[in-house]
Amino acid sequence: MAGKREENPAGSSNNLRGDVLRVLGVLKVATAEQIQQITLPHLSYRHTDKPTPSKQKQARTASHTGALSDLRKHGLAENGGQLPGGDTLRNLTPLGLKAAARELGRPVGEMGNPARGAGRTGASHPMTVNEAVLALLRPKPDLSQLVSEPADVRAAAQAAADAPAGLGTIASYATEVPLPATGTWSNPGKGGAQADIVTTAPEDGVPLLFVEIDNCHESAQVLAGKIDKYTRFCQRKVKDADGKERPMWRTRWWVPDGRHGDQPHPPLLLVFNRIGPRNPDTVSAQLAELTRRHWQGTAYEGGFHMYDGKLPIVVTEMKQLREHGPAGAVFRRFGRPHDQTLLEAINNPRREAHDTRQQAERAARDREHKEQLRRAAERERAEREASRPVCAVCGAKFTDERWKATAPARWDVPRDTHPRLCDDCKQHAITAERQAEQANREHQEPEQAVPEQKGGGWFSRLRS
Fold first, then answer.
1. CATH code assigned to 1-125
2. Helix 14-27 vs helix 32-39: angle between axes, to the nearest 10 degrees?
3. What are phi and psi of 359, to 5 degrees?
């Protein structure tokens, strides 16, 4: 035990250090509190009895601070400066990125570079990126860890647990991902984009989502230039391992083929954070006009659009995303008049509704056709029953077999002997006919057997 304490003086567990590596491997730079909120969200509801918010935060993050200290001792993590509020930023070293790659199950080449020096400029953009990941992820507290907490604390945790879920796990996210329009993944050339966040949560209906964060410092024209780069990347095709040419992004991420016969590009979510001076509503309206050629679909009869080769662009604000998460109707897709949930915004609900209506109409036609066939069959059965023969003796209806047997036969097949009788009456009639024939034979046989009388003529009388 003493050896373990010497190796990890802060006493952190392997699992806790693994959690820290996974979070920093994704976010690149984060505070101890952000790491805690993602990995052990139930701690956010503990230590409410501490006298000040700073003491409460210190108690909540003590375990992760210890894990960071142990990782720092091993050369895997380091301090990356401080935020204006005093929180210390943490990031991984190159050795730490390799360890995080193992924890996340990713190639080391996909991990990016260490985020050293982020705190020197306040790290406002990385912190907004982390906030967006938390808002999309929406980690759920483990209520079993809060049974001894006060009732109001447990109620708050229960409300968070009952709220709509977020997308995926921390392993579903990556940040600062190059999207090369030229060059390679590991050595991107000019003209490409860099996604602030890439989300892959197919189990939650989001196979691939690019996220761009804007702290309201950039103009619509600058953002339009970024969207041009996203489009160039999405249009780029390369030869895959099988020698076939396909979109470059499909060589890294799996996305099912378009369900409606079209192949839109992966959607882009633009999150505005009201820090800078620009009005996101104005910028968003201008951006929609500047990028119309990239996102506008083709209208079809039926009230829907197809988006083959188009880039779906969705916008929201950080405040709304933080409050409502992906399940809230706080997302506006360019070209649509109303806010929607994230899944509705990145998909094609009008086309889906059109397909559902068509399927319902086809199903109704199929049901009507089956009903017509059923009624026709019933009429045919009724007509057949009306023409079914009845026995001339007992009045019973013929069975199908008996009816078939009495039907007109081929010239070389003997006609039924009693076509107007049912099976039972036919058997009775045949039995009666045989008995009558037998009686007739028995009656005729004695007369034929009377011997000739000898000597009954004139000669015999003369002799007597």
1. 1.10.10
2. 110
3. -65, -40
